[in-house]
Specification:
The complex is a heterodimer of chains A (281) and B (593).
Chain A: E1 2-9, E2 25-26, E3 29-30, H1 31-42, E4 47-51, E5 65-68, H2 76-87, E6 91-98, H3 106-114, E7 121-126, E8 129-130, E9 134-138, H4 142-150, H5 156-160, E10 165-168, H6 170-174, H7 177-182, H8 195-203, E11 208-213, H9 216-219, E12 225-230, H10 234-240, E13 249-253, E14 257-259, E15 271-276
Parallel strand pairs in A: 1-4, 1-6, 4-5, 7-10, 11-15
Antiparallel strand pairs in A: 2-3, 6-9, 7-8, 7-9, 11-12, 13-14, 13-15
Helix pairs in contact in A: 1-3, 2-4
Chain B: E1 12-17, E2 22-27, H1 30-36, H2 39-50, E3 64-67, E4 81-87, E5 94-100, H3 102-108, E6 114-118, E7 125-130, E8 133-138, H4 147-158, E9 162-167, H5 169-173, E10 180-182, E11 185-187, H6 192-198, E12 201-207, H7 217-231, H8 237-241, H9 247-253, H10 270-273, H11 275-281, E13 284-287, E14 297-301, E15 307-310, H12 312-319, H13 327-340, H14 344-359, H15 373-385, H16 390-393, H17 397-404, E16 414-415, E17 418-419, H18 429-437, H19 450-453, H20 465-484, H21 497-509, H22 515-535, H23 547-551, E18 554-555, E19 561-562, H24 566-579
Parallel strand pairs in B: 1-6, 7-12
Antiparallel strand pairs in B: 1-2, 3-4, 3-6, 4-5, 7-8, 9-10, 9-12, 10-11, 13-14, 14-15, 16-17, 18-19
The chains are: A alpha/beta (281), B alpha+beta (593).
Bound molecules: iron/sulfur cluster.
Chain lengths: 281, 593
């Protein structure tokens, strides 16, 4: 069984935003596309999006599974219960987050899920606030979460009373050099709940990433070597070195994902290697 | 061309008994040709028909077939190729390999769709085929020579117009992964050189005596012009500009460059071995097979001024797999493999396995260490001369592990006895499946499932149904390309491959082939190989990967770890069996055990 999976809760009412957060633009992509892609980059196992019944969603990365909340407006605990239930037997734990964390860094996800074997819940505490929607939950909690929902005890906090919980405060999180190097301010948990919060996050400089060209792309006359650019997506990183992501081009991100999806989300510290597609030999 | 044969065919194979030079013509009915096309497809049929069940691959009765194709001799780019098919001494199952150039053209124009050798000559022999005439001659002068030297020597002896395929010293010595070569191109995998060597045949020479016409010559010419133009587009720019060596940095960036016997997938010395670096330090010339507009071969000048053909597979197997980052050592090792006539992938894989054995104390060889170019070259020399560790390493990693014992089989990176090419299965789950189930063993030619992994359309780290579809599709495409034959480097230029290949095949043969028929043909060829293997002792356990890949996690450059669990692999294999119409144990439903 895989260690960690991901769940993105998208079925909330977004009442403070006044519109669906999932569709909001994020530098040429959408909030949901970005958050699912970021989470996919941080976990080893499957990725589940839990939506309101029949809710229409923007495009998602390949391999993401979409499931419906059984009823609308029952809050995040219901979505959490549904997501964990889908993952039972497939992954030991899941990093669960909301769709409004556009600065979530895969290194943050990895730091949190690293402790998933220590307790049922790994709960970051940032700025004095618990972060239940940027936390790791054992998939074995699915039953307890569902029962709480059926008892109308809809706060995620109720689940903590029935589980072992490890809290990770800021010093503990930042003791991880891989995380502190790329997200020293723990912006990973900065939520865009209101239009103002969204505007403020969106106005921040896009992440600084490194792009390198290899193979025939270099021989084709482009400048070899590494270029530092600011880009939130693969498409914009490639465009900044005059490469169009068509079927003849493939990108490796940190030796991890292989993609030519222009909306593939990038974060600070990424190394993007652009190469000619067409493998073999 | 026999009157009744379809365009591009002669409708017959020549079976030659090298014990005495006697021959017989084997008619190839049109139905057989249409169902198996040529190349590896027809070769599989011939091996099934002519090979005694359960035969020792190195016994006189074991056939080895040189198989041409309907497209050979047409102006269609990359079509001048031939397949060599035999039972492998490395795997005990079917092996087939392609080589290129004028041997294919002249061999076919002897008037045969295939030449099949059986028997064993009394001493070192050259088999010369001119039309239906076969002459055996003494090859003692060439015995011990490299295949290139032997080729030149036989051509000089026989005179103009002859094309020669030859084995090197490794084939003579029965190294189980010895190659068979023509014009610097090797039918590399599975020990075909050892099969020829077991017959005491150093070289096969062919001389054209006839012509063959396609059914629609103007149509073929127009198609050839179009294909040539398309072959010069972006789909092939990588192999044209840098050759397959372009993969070194790319695969390293993708955490899929096998390193130190697959214990890692990112090699710190990759940059020094990359095409981009090597090209600046070594003069590079490009070469191509006959009738090819792409020209993927890149030859690097070594310190001694010798040109060495370098491929990605050489660098991954002899470089990163052995932890060797010294480009001079890797160039020298590649050159040594060419001289000996051994498959670089199996040689590098077996030596890398032995290096790990030595480091773990399972083999007593203090000199044999990862990272040592000198050790790499010494190991190759010992394989070539049969001294020191040579006899053990000549067996290939699986059989050698059975000798060494301990847990050494768990980290012998092979499937069915064939060493893995330069693709890390844990970061390429479609390819992992392809290598597990392919008839030839761990294979990147008959299964190019890496295309699916690197398509950007699926998550290569989470194998599932899409990966199964990718692996099946890739096998089917390879089955057609390797049978009709077109070079696999051309595959990216086809938008609708089966439909476009059907048009080409129809123009050449006069048949009204369509895409559906070709898909059926592909499936038939894949299953025919499986059926042959079943007959020769394949068991379901043979469709699997070594423990190293299933029990050990791999750390990616991102810091994330990844794994390929046995459950995931099993699930993909079952999906593959279902897609192929096989039962849950990988057998056709009609086959009882
Ligand atoms: S692409 Fe390369 S291997 Fe293929 S036919 Fe041309 S030169 Fe030969």
């Amino acid at each position: 069984m895989l260690e960690s999976a991901g769940v993105v809760l998208v079925g909330g009412r977004s009442s403070r935003m006044g519109r669906s957060k999932a569709d909001l633009d994020w530098h040429g992509s959408t909030m949901l596309r970005r958050v699912t892609g970021l989470l996919q980059r941080g976990v080893d196992g499957p990725l589940i999006v839990v939506r309101a019944p029949g809710q229409s969603l923007p495009g998602l990365p390949p391999g993401v599974e979409v499931v419906d909340d059984p009823a609308e407006g029952r809050g995040p605990l219901q979505g959490l219960a549904v997501g964990l239930a889908v993952l039972q037997g497939r992954a030991r734990s899941a990093f669960v987050c909301a769709t409004d964390l556009p600065l979530l860094h895969p290194a943050f996800v990895r730091r949190v899920t690293r402790d998933a074997g220590l307790a049922d819940v790994v709960l970051p505490v940032v700025g004095g606030h618990r972060q239940p929607l940027a936390a790791s939950y054992a998939t074995s909690l699915a039953g307890a979460a569902a029962r709480l929902v059926s008892e109308d005890r809809l706060k995620v906090g109720f689940l903590f009373d029935e589980a072992t919980v490890v809290r990770l405060d800021e010093p503990q999180l930042l003791a991880d050099p891989a995380l502190s190097a790329v997200d020293p301010g723990l912006a990973s948990v900065s939520g865009a709940n209101t239009v103002e919060e969204y505007d403020a996050l969106h106005a921040q400089p896009e992440p600084e990433v490194t792009v390198e060209l290899s193979g025939a792309l270099v021989a084709g006359g482009l400048d070899r070597g590494r270029h530092t650019v600011r880009a939130s997506t693969l498409g914009s990183a490639a465009a900044s070195v005059s490469v169009h992501l068509d079927r003849h081009v493939l990108a490796a991100v940190n030796g991890d994902q292989a993609s030519r999806d222009p909306e593939f989300p990038l974060v600070r510290g990424d190394l993007v290697t652009l190469m000619s597609a067409g493998a073999g030999g | 061309m026999a009157d009744s044969s379809p365009g591009g065919y002669f409708g017959r194979a020549l079976v030659i008994d090298v014990s005495d030079g006697s021959t017989r013509v084997l008619p190839l009915p049109e139905r057989v040709l249409r169902e198996h096309l040529g190349g590896v497809g027809l070769g599989t049929w011939l091996l099934t028909e002519l090979g005694p069940p359960g035969v020792d691959p190195l016994a006189p009765e074991a056939p080895i077939a040189f198989v041409f194709s309907p497209l050979v001799g047409t102006p269609l780019t990359t079509s001048a190729k031939f397949a060599v098919v035999a039972k492998s001494p490395l795997t005990g199952l079917l092996t087939d390999a392609l080589a290129s150039s004028h041997f294919a053209l002249s061999g076919k124009l002897t008037g045969h769709d295939a030449l099949v050798l059986v028997g064993r000559a009394a001493g070192p022999t050259t088999v010369a085929v001119r039309g239906g005439q076969v002459e055996l001659s003494d090859a003692r002068a060439e015995w011990g020579a490299s295949s290139a030297q032997a080729e030149a020597s036989v051509r000089a002896r026989l005179g103009g117009g002859w094309q020669v395929a030859s084995i090197g010293p490794a084939g003579e010595r029965g190294v189980r992964y010895a190659t068979l070569s023509h014009d610097g191109r090797h039918a590399g995998r599975g020990g075909l050189g050892a099969v020829l060597g077991s017959k005491n045949v150093k070289a096969v020479a062919v001389h054209a005596t006839t012509k063959v016409a396609p059914a629609d010559a103007p149509g073929v010419l127009a198609a050839a012009r179009d294909l040539r133009t398309r072959s010069l587009g972006r789909a092939t720019s990588k192999v044209r500009e840098l050759g397959t060596m372009a993969n070194v940095l790319a695969y390293n960036a993708l955490s899929t460059l096998p390193t130190r016997n697959f214990s890692e997938a990112v090699f710190e010395g990759a940059a020094a071995l990359a095409a981009e670096e090597l090209a600046s330090a070594h003069a590079v010339t490009r070469a191509s097979c006959a009738s090819c507009s792409i020209g993927c071969s890149h030859l690097y000048r070594d310190k001694g001024g010798r040109s060495v053909r370098m491929e990605y597979q050489n660098v991954s197997s002899l470089g990163s797999m052995c932890g060797v980052s010294d480009p001079e050592a890797v160039l020298a090792a590649s050159s040594r493999c060419d001289d000996l006539g051994i498959d670089t992938i199996s040689a590098g894989g077996t030596i890398a396995w032995a290096m790990e054995c030595a480091e773990r104390g399972l083999i007593d060889a203090a000199w044999l260490r990862f990272g040592s170019g000198a050790a790499l070259l010494r190991a190759l020399d010992e394989i070539g001369t049969g001294t020191g560790l040579g006899p053990l390493l000549s067996l290939g990693s699986r059989a050698a592990a059975e000798v060494v014992g301990g847990d050494s089989l768990t980290f012998a990176a092979q499937v069915k006895g064939l060493e893995l090419p330069g693709y890390e299965p844990r970061t390429m789950h479609a390819m992992a499946l392809g290598m597990a189930v392919n008839a030839r063993g761990a294979d990147h030619n008959r299964s190019g499932a890496y295309d699916a992994d690197l398509s950007g359309e699926l998550d290569r780290l989470r194998g599932g149904d899409a990966h199964v579809r990718g692996a099946v599709e890739s096998e089917d495409r390879a089955a057609v390309m390797d049978s009709m034959i077109l070079c696999s480097f051309l595959r990216g230029v086809f938008d609708e491959p089966f439909a476009e290949w059907a048009v080409l095949l129809s123009l050449v043969t006069g048949w009204d082939v369509d895409a559906d028929e070709l898909r059926t043909t592909a499936q038939r060829i894949v299953l025919a190989k499986r059926a042959y293997n079943l007959r020769e002792g394949w068991t379901p356990e043979d469709d699997w990967l070594p423990e190293r890949f299933l029990e050990t996690d791999l750390t990616l450059a991102s810091g994330r770890t990844t794994s390929l669990t046995p459950q995931r692999l099993r699930s993909m294999i079952l999906g593959y069996y279902a897609a192929r119409g096989l039962d849950g144990s990988g057998r056709p439903p009609s086959v009882q055990t």
